[in-house]
Amino acid sequence: MENYLLAFSISLLGLFFLFFNVIYSFKIRKKVNQIAFRFFISYISIMLIIELFCHVIGFLDPGSNIFISHFYFNFQFILVTTFFVFLFKNSKKIQNGLILISTIVLCLILASYLMGYFSFWEFNLLEIGLTSLVLVSYIIFYFYVNFENNNVPFYNFFGGLAVYLLSSCLIFLTGNVELVFIDEPLIDIWVLNSILYIIFQFFIFKELKDFEKE
């Protein structure tokens, strides 16, 4: 129980930093008159709502909030994909490619539930792996396209997101919910995931500070 409280406390700290970033983003939104910035605010705001539900349910009934992960990974995938579709608005070919790949990914995830490979109340490893790795591939492609650009839009955000997604994906794929909450080594890994999330929030804050300076 003590280990769970430690992990939950560190996770709450990550939630606090996310809440701070959302408040800060709304504070400076009038200074940043860009549609892309609205996508950015929408992403962190929706993630905050999902995280709030996850923490409330996790506090009231530890271990029963696993199903929230499906909303987290899928909404994140859809939001970030939509963000990229907007950022590549000058290339219909790239936009169509992103939409096609993302549609296939979502169909595969849906099929994994319909065919009974994963339960709604458990981690869906296919969902975690596909959404995370495909988003990372999008980010790498985005950096490649903007390789010669000295001021890549949302550089800190996408860089931080890529690191967090890769690390988080490896952590989640190490085992199931029983191992995460009971076995000592995996509790340490759960804490590590929360620490990585806090670091990700730092990258988001740095992105916001850069926008404020513009």
Question: What would your notes on this structure say?
Answer:
The longest helix is centred in the C-terminal third of the chain and has 30 residues, at 184-213. Helix 1 (2-28) runs parallel beside helix 8, helix 3 (68-87) runs parallel beside helix 5 and helix 6 runs antiparallel to helix 8. This protein starts with a helix and ends with a helix. It is mostly helical. Residues 176-183 have low confidence and may be disordered. It has helices at 2-28, 35-60, 68-87, 92-114, 125-145, 155-172, 177-182, 184-213.
In brief, what are we looking at here?
The chain has 214 residues and is mainly alpha-helical. The protein has helices at residues 2-28, 35-60, 68-87, 92-114, 125-145, 155-172, 177-182, 184-213.
Key traits:
214 residues, single chain, 0% strand, mainly alpha, 80% helix
Q: What is the number of helices?
A: 8
From N to C, what is the helix and strand string? HHHHHHHH
Question: Which class best fits the helix and strand makeup?
Answer: mainly alpha
The dominant shape is globular
N→C terminal distance:
47 Å
Runs with pLDDT <50, length 5+? 176-183
Rounded to an integer in angstroms, the radius of gyration calculated over CA atoms is 18 Å
